[in-house]
Amino acid sequence: xxRAVLMVVIAAMVxxxxxxxxxxxxxxxxxxxxxxxxxxxxxxLNQYCALSGCHSGSGSQKGVxxxxxxxxxxxxxxxxxxxxxxxxxxxxLLSELNPGTGVNQHMPPSSQLDPCTIQEIYxxxxxxxxxx
Length: 132
Hints:
The chain is mostly helical. It is built from five helices and no strands. The chain has helices at residues 2-18, 37-48, 71-76, 92-97, 115-126. Helix 2 (37-48) packs across helix 5.
């Protein structure tokens, strides 16, 4: 009996971990019909990510250059891309922005993004990460 209960608990943990999505914060507005890469996402990247010593220029951390002219190509490239358009669960960018979920420390390391800012990026990815 103990083994059966233990197996159910382990299965529940595995399945809940696999289906965990970066859910929308209840304190933020719902996703607008369109989140614009240039008007909405680029300002966030410029303020928190595309900084000297972080993700800007030839010395970018881990080769991830998020300068406004390169950010879209960097984030959506096939293979090591950090955004899987339309799939918020497998988009590495979201796990790096959410403290405690990233492979390394959360980004940006100097401050935590507020949930509504992360949600804006979530909505953009959910909408297919258009280059608009």
